[in-house]
Structures
1.
Amino acid sequence: MIRLTSLLLFFSLLPLLLNLSFSSHVSISLSPETLCKSGDQVTIRWSGVESPSKRDWVGIYSPPTSAHSHFIGYFFLSDSPEWQSGSGSLTFALINLRSNYTFRIFRWTDAEVDPSRHDHDQNPLPGTKQLLAESNELGFGYVGPEQVHLALTGQEDEMRVMYLTHDGKESFVKYGLGPDQMDRVVATQVGRYEREDMCDSPANHSVGWRDPGYIHDGIMTNLKKGKRYYYKAGSDSGGWSVTYSFMSHDGDSDETVAFLFGDMGTATPYNTFVRTQPESISTMKWISRDIEALGDKPALISHIGDISYARGYSWLWDNFFAQIEPVASKVPYHVCIGNHEYDWPLQPWKPEWSYSVYGTDGGGECGVPYGLRFNMPGSSSEPTGTHAPATRNLYYSFDVGVVHFVYISTETNFLPESSQYNFIKNDLESVDRAKTPFVVVQGHRPMYTTSNELRDAPLRNRMLKHLEPLLVKNKVTLALWGHVHRYERFCPLSNFTCGSLGLGGEDWKAFPVHVVIGMGGQDWQPIWEPRPDHPDVPIFPQPLRSLYRGGEFGYTRLVASKEKLTLSYVGNHDGEVHDMVEILASGQVLNGGGSSSAGGGSKPMGEKESRLSWFVKGAAILVLGAFIGYVLGFVSRARRDTAAGKNWTPVKNEEI
């Protein structure tokens, strides 16, 4: 009996003994052990991993007391070129989450793969049974204000600034007309949300929740029109941020510049529970280029839903705001709500027809981080029906120069008699077209799309029935939508009928031009709508109403004067214009019939054409001439082949 008991004890301790044998010689170190600020890089080095496997991995933990399975991200050791030697290193940037980090190395075997635990892409999440080593803690030297971003308030002489601190103590914004003339000071209001405010998992579960810090909100007032202001945030006791600057808006200006997109998300250097969006880096890069080219002209950014794609993993909100800060601290950053900020099973407005539309896309956040981390103009809100605070920033409008911008919510009630419907109707009917000849309406889920997205059909039908008549009656210039992660521009539309094909001419009607601009960064996307009689064949006819479809990531650039509004689609792979439409104040569409490039529009904003560009154009004309000659020869040959009985039917690619 004693021998049997000893054997049982031995086998029960065997995993622990094996773990000790694996980890006894494994070491892990950090360089540096204190990062100066959020976004700085750390290098982790390890050695002594015996019989290294491709499944061995290192987890990233914050706070350091997190359970093994509650990492914020991970790398495989095989990401290091020298991993097979049992040693290696990885270098990557980290965001300050207001608590320290640690790093843990684990051995993960094939036998430990748990198919029930997987990430957003159905990849199994790594196992944590065999800990090999744990690092010292990594901290941050700077603990002042971070994640700074601006917003308009609806008052021409104001600018809102928001940011985070770790302690919520009294904090201020200093501002003025020069970096050495920040002689005006405004106090900030402070708010935050708690884990109990979240509505579902993972947002209210320990795997997704992290302390969000304290949200500060201040308004710089009495700003002079069209002037560059400098500002910084913080306090003498808690430390001050770096100095930022922005251009105040001029309500009398005859020009408006905006950068608009949807569904951008954020990029992380590590793997995590959900898919992140590497293309968001390029979107911000090219917009930053355009803002620099503007010089001392004001502009704004419009991000129409699916903002961070945190989906209940709160550190992704921190990552997002750190990523946009270089841009959002210079120009106001405006948003509207999308399904990935809001939708959860018990959301209060969920008609019977909408069960295929509204699901669990918000990861249990129920609009709380979105509603508190941003503060948009107006006072729209809807109760959540739970302990959570009411959802804010649902619908609002403001004027910038010659454009009236309207933001709506496709996730909450927009049907007749609702507060949102009444707002949209009254707002559109009261626009002063002498002051703002152009009206741009923006929402997340599209009213028109040729994507094969069937689940939203009930919603689109009701938008077409109830909202489209308001847009047509009030001669809305542009209707911009996200949700579909591609670019698609339609002809001026009313009830699926084109007012014109965007080629000028006398026969036209001033219907809204609908454009889907959800190509900001998220990469998942269903196919275009196939032929009804051959749904299994990858041929996707482009209806006449759809003038341009593109699959490239990017953003749109809006430039408007009193006479004309120009919307350009800028692609991320080259930063050049791939489509453009021009609309007069009368509503007439001058061009934009579906060509894949816009004349001269491929230059960054503010860049003048050089002599070299003319040489390039000349060479291009020669190449084009040779190509046309080739095509004519090919057509001639094709006709001869057809005459000989060699019939064929060409298929047009929808991207051309």
2.
Amino acid sequence: MATAAATGIHLHDLPEPILTHIFSLVCDVRSRNAMSLACRRWRTLERATRSSLVLRGHVRSPFLLPTCFPAVAHLDLSLLSPWGHHPFLLHHQQPPPQPPPPPQYYHDNLAEQAALVAARLAQTFPCVSSLAIYARDPSVVAALAPRWPGLCAVRFVRWHQRPPALPLGADLAPLLAACPALSTLDLSQFYCWTEDVPQALQDHPVAAASLTRLDLLCPASTEGFCSSKLADIAAACPNLTHLLVPCVFNPRCIEFVGDDALLMLAAGCPRLSLLHLVDPSTLSPARSDSEANEDAAVTGPGLEELFAKLPQLEDLALDLCHNVRDAGPSLEMLSYKCPKIKSLKLGQFHGVCKGGWLHLDGVSVCGRLESLCIKNSADLIDASLVTIARGCRRLSRLEIHGCHKVTEAGLKKLSSILRSTLVDVAISGCQLLDAARSLRALEPIRDRIERLHIDCIWVLPELDQLPQTPETTADDSDVDQVDEEMSDESRTKKSRYSDGNDGSDESSSFWFRTWASLRCLSLWVPAGEVLTPLGDAGLESCPQLEGISIKVEGDCRTCPRPRQGVFGLSFLARYPRLVKMKLDCGEAIGYALTAPTGHMDLSLWERFYLHGISDLRLYELDYWPPQDREVNQRSLSLPATGLIQECLSLRKLFIHGTTHEHFMRFFLMMPVLRDVQLREDYYPAPENDMSTEMRVDSCGRFEEALNTRLIPD
């Protein structure tokens, strides 16, 4: 700054092309907004170079659309308010004249509004090549798609039920007919029937042939694609490079997916570089830890043939709910047949890596892997992890789920070997790893790890009495050198935190160790548990932690009243940089109405989970209220509203459920709150507005009151 002041040279003096290129490299929305406030020239450049825009308001009048962003290429209309309703309703529906008009009256009125808004959008954003839209019915797509015939990427969103009267493929037909050059189609948040997609692709062969990326992994759908439908997709889209699809792997079902179907898919789409084939049950937000009793029709020799036909494969996910036996030899062939493989996810695979000798076997032969996820592998042991660490030295992300023979010792040896690369770890559903053991196992990378997921299972005292067996204990000779390098550091830190007693154990010093690089933390919490033991488990200090995701799951109806009166959100106040939180209680089940004697209803459980949120300086909060499945209700209660309102630093608030209008009025007393929205993004989203819930008019009144307030900053 002193040099610039002395020479009189300023960043503002850079030539226009250079400054424009600098602005185009900035992607963070908040940073771009701050840059636009520097001066008028910077504001003009920021608007001229912004390529992505998410519209959040209600399109009540076309003249309210911003006209100062001509270079926008990605336009997101999926979050228009009120969420989930028709995006082209310019005004609230007035009572019909007397006598009541025919249904065609409403259809023509909506069509005129849709044409008006679509024309205005195309005029305002002429360069759109990527579009996201909440398409509750085909009329939305039919109005927008012809305005941008050069669309390359489209993402549909729909959590409401599919209109039953629609013919097969009607949801996608307007898009495929108007955009023949479409290359990316994302239906991962769009509920439709499995018969819709193949039918639409077959009816529009030109657009289907141009597709290179197709994502069909929607958690709302409980049905997968059978072998014939998978073959239809492969025949219609021969140029696919990315394919994500749920499949029927259950051998008891008709037209299940087995070796023949996989080979047919590989023959039809030989250019695939990303292939995710998963069982539909694995997409459910609720955790399932049940063990498989049947074998899948996917075999090792079949997988070897599949890999031989896909030499460009870089990312592979095979997440099944049925056993795949003796997968080790086929995984060894994966390294030779697919030399570019970097990411691998395996579910219900046996023999992934035996680790019985010093030589590498199974998945450990894939030395180029950077991401590895192993789920429900019954024979994965500590020696397997050590062998994987020896062979896959580039691993930066590791996830293990439901591997019940893995212990703290094996995971610690793995993290020691991969200390220089491993920065993202997820540990869940492992019977021998509670929270404290998981954190102690990651001690070698404590100063390097950036993303972490653990289960908040606090006490497993029975593990201390388990005998050490060859299956659960790895050979220390594999990591002797690594342990020697870390011994000096461990002794130094132990003496630093010890109280001077020579007999103090290592756990007493572990409490106050710092996770210096941890920026994102994810926690799974059983219903009725609390967060307060998190510090004693080892997460006392996280100076760089910016975001936390907490998922509460379980049946609150069978839980006793918590011994402690609060969940423990105030404990998170010790993380100074924590500004974003996702609190997901959507899979916590309880009584929405009157609870039986001795039980707590959902409003009391919400008070339990949200107590202490006022102690946090949050900038953004996503909250999923608990639910009562018997009445399909996920509604924000009055105690929850009052507790959230006490978090005065909130700028963005997203409630993934419903509530009452007079409850929403509490949020108007939060001084800096700027962005609030109700999102029923779960299946099935409520079709009709209930008599006392937020309706279109209610959302409009609340938004007007929110937008007319003066924001201090």
3.
Amino acid sequence: MPDEKMMAAAQKFVFSNLLSILFHGSGGDAPPDALPPHPSEKVCIHRRAPPAARLAEATALVVDVDGGLLLSRSLFPYFMLVAVEAGGFTRGLLLLLLYPVIACAGASGGGDVAVRAMAFVAFCGLRAARFRAGRAVLPRWLLEDIGLEAFDAVRRRPLGAAGKRAVVVWASRMPRVMLEPFLKEYLIADAADVVAAREMKVLWGFYTGLMEEGDGEAASEARKKLMESTVVGDDIVGFSGGSMEFLRNNTLSSSCKEVYVVSAEEKRKWRPLPSHEYPRPLVFHDGRLAFRPTPLDTLAMLVWLPFGAALALARIAVAMALPYRYATLILAATGQSWRLRGSLPPSSRSPSRGQLYVCNHRTLIDPVYVSIALNRPVRAVSYSLSRLSELISPIGRTVHLARDRAHDGAAMARLLDGGAHVVVCPEGTTCREPYLLRFSPLFAELSGEGVVPVAIAVETAMFHATTAGGWKSMDPLYYVANPRMCYTVEFLGKVHTAPVRNGAAASTDVANRVQRLMAAALGYECTMLTRKDKYLMLAGNDGLVGAKGPTCQ
């Protein structure tokens, strides 16, 4: 018995010290829930939002991103996004199981302990060079979480000394690799701005899961930057939320002359930042999750996964075995529905030649729903399609293109001359946001009678059916694994392409016209961005098969 007691005591001692090293830093650090001494005689703390006039007088601004800019009080969804999108569902399950401990630590004042624990689970073992969630996944969810009132206060950036634009320090408890790409892409408007966030430690090219000790080197560098950019007597104003975590960061808060801490009651009255007021349009976004992974929503997803996998296989079997009119009825009963907006297009006047349908590209199965709406077989053309996607396709074999204008044009022309109805997506890649990428004008040079634009919209409840950096062969499986989803298909009026063949109009003019017609029907915006722009941003390559690019962080 004494040996057992001694062993239990030793295990408890080792375990407690291991937690201290992992989440607190070195053993001599102060407990994370202890408020460090604060020079209150120098820093004036206000329990309200900063007045616009006060911000206009300040020469520098320190923004607490977690508490002052974001509406949500918990950082758990962002770490869960990293865990699932970069590490997989098993890592997400582990983080969810740890949530009760994280919640208790946060409620008892150990906010930094909770952040370190979540960072450890989300990052430990990930390859640093391949991490892209900070640039490709998180920006959409961070933008949706910004408070309009906070954003209005921050974007009225004051003028600093000598009429120069004031320095803004963006402080956060999240790791720099999670936050900095979002800030630089959407919020930072001046090269002098500083991101004060801790680094994740890397060993042999992999994240260890440990963050920098204390406030991190970035906080010290930010304070040095503030001192260099201001003169004696200048005002440095801090802006935080209802939490006291920002005040515990003595490195930055002690640099401020005043700190405005918005109360939780006042913050609940804030409104989300509307998408039309985003500093930059969010055109590209990656990741499988179509919902914000709060603890309850994450639990629902993980419980659904085995049922969703079985339902996906059943849905595929029904779609491949039964005719459209029967399969769609059965699939609708399982939550996989579609709807036709408007009416079907008139039949082609040339029975010996096929009709060319031009649609925007939302997922790989766009041609399937065009075929279902027409109730007749169509031929799809695609640059790259996995063997699995082609195997489970209910519309037959896809024609592969080579991104060679002469080769691809001849291939589609042969199909049309043979009487096949062809579906083409001139964007060249999928876009899940309400934007249309630039249309390739090749389709306008092929059809004699004209082309039929098809406007397509997709709604999913749990998973996105597209990815730029994940396993593209799983795209259709993720779509049919959703508990509910709906395709909307709308056939627009035929656009004549005879002027292109006669030399009276440029093919680019016709392509742009079709793009504008689709955008008007869908309520989307037209862009001149291309497939290459998408993959360079989300995956760090040009989107070609087998291409490898630098890290997108």
4.
Amino acid sequence: MSSARRGAARGQAWFCTTGLPSDIVFEVQDMGFHLHKFPLMSKSRKIHRMLMEQEEEPALRRRRRRSEGGNAGEEGASQTEIEEAEEAEEEEEQTTKEGQTYCIALPDFPGGPGTFETVAKFCYGVRVELTAWNVAPLRCAAEYLEMTEEHAEDNLAARAESYLEQTVLRHPGEATKALKSCEELLPHAEELGIVDRCVEAIAARSSAASRSWFDDLAVLGLHMYKRVMAAMAARADVRTEARESCLVSYAKGTIPGLSRSMRRRLASAPVSSEVEQRELLEAVVASLPADKCSGRVVTAKFLFALLRTAHILRASDAARAALERKAATQLEHATLEDVLIPSYSGTTETLYDVDCVERVVRHFLAEEELGEAEASTSAAITKEAAAKTASRPSAVAMVHVGKLVDNYLAEIASDANLKPAKFCELTMALPDHARIYDDGVYRAVDIYLRAHPRLTAEERDRVCGVVDCRKLTVEACTHAAQNERLPLRAVLQVLFFEQLQLRRAITGTLLASSGAPQARHHRHQQHRPSAAVQDSQVLRLDMDSMRNRVQELERECSSMRRAIKKIDGRGSAAASPRSADSGDAVAAADGSSRPTSWRSRYRCKFSTQVCDSHARNVVASRASRMGMSP
């Protein structure tokens, strides 16, 4: 059997070129199929019945006419004349019957012209290859045409059903393809139970199968995807990781621009409009596990990418709030790139959405406080349990979040539209134990002061007040002491706490020098007498070096105090016009009124250094400043 396509007035025509003229035409949508009735009648009970009805229609018309003539009586013609007319009509029908062409319209045929062409080839004895994509349409078409075993052996319905059960439903990837084909076969596929069987096959085998088929989920429409996820959630034997993998694969494949690092989309995934993408995203958010995600599949990068896309697509407030709470559970694993969410609102002047990040941070803190409250209300905590609580993973997560927030602050500090109140609010959102050292906060403050030179004195003091000088390393203290952008009060605080650090270091050294030789004397009195002497000399040198540093700082502080007193003493003279003129001249000579002249006026003698924007090794810097070398 061969076939040919030809253009027609209303569409296209499909001809079976077997050498015999066609005697039946099937109209399926805009396609006309010119076929032969006997091959199709032998396989389809419905076609057989429809053709028999068309052949019997002339006889029915004759009987109807005869009945009407009998009721009317013998007024028009005699009975003999009527019978002669009927015999002549039958002879004419018999003569033209051989060349008659039947026409059957199938407007609601499942699968359309493509499926009907495959069915026609099957009826002519052509070998048909079944696949996951065509088995559902062929099964529905076989049911529609009544191609059952009762009508003919080894018919299409039985063959399609066998392939569906033995091949397609045993692998979730093949079942996904069949489920996709069912979207165009409703309600026929629903009535045959194909949709339910495909959904259950995907859910039942999702945990045991490999993950290579997860990308196939992207071809499903939103309705079918929801049914699959609902079926997986209803089964107790489906692992959470499998559900998360299905969710992530579907989101990546159906939502364009999900992330800057997730640009790949499946070629077979449909291109959706903005409204459809919003519906897809909200459906993905609704499918997220209620508990904390494992982090292996639904990662922090994926959650923040969803959150960024939700802002772009203007998703509902409920969806964005749910994403913010879910992203907070993975905040300790996020990177700086993840939390840099651009501001897509016209009411926000800043480049990045600082309010969104602040809400995520507060959700994270609320979860931590809830965990601590549950731990405190549990049974009595022993010493070992208390030690474990102090080193619990949440404490480590808090430190990670502290570093992330400090890096985020340093990134947004250069935004000219970032208000001091918002900068300080985000900085102070974290508790004290979230930062071991405040070097990251100081770095962000330094960048903010450099990018906002027109701050008032009050705003400058408020911004600098977020830095805890007691938690600055020696290196940060040294840089702050010569930082011309810091107010005088902040510099004095830095010098004071640096002096305290040095005093504590000296005290610790003294204790070590007094206790260590005694212990070594008892242990190594006969073996290493010279080593103890060497250690004592090294410690004594370290003490002398630190003592000199403390004295130097005390001299600097005394010099500053004297200079401040002199300034206060000249308060009355500063009100005179001469003093005002001279002050204006000095300001003009300096070029600005920034606090750049107080350092030379107060005779501070710190070497110029450059602030390093990267984190330093605290231990190494502390050792280098103390001069601990043998």
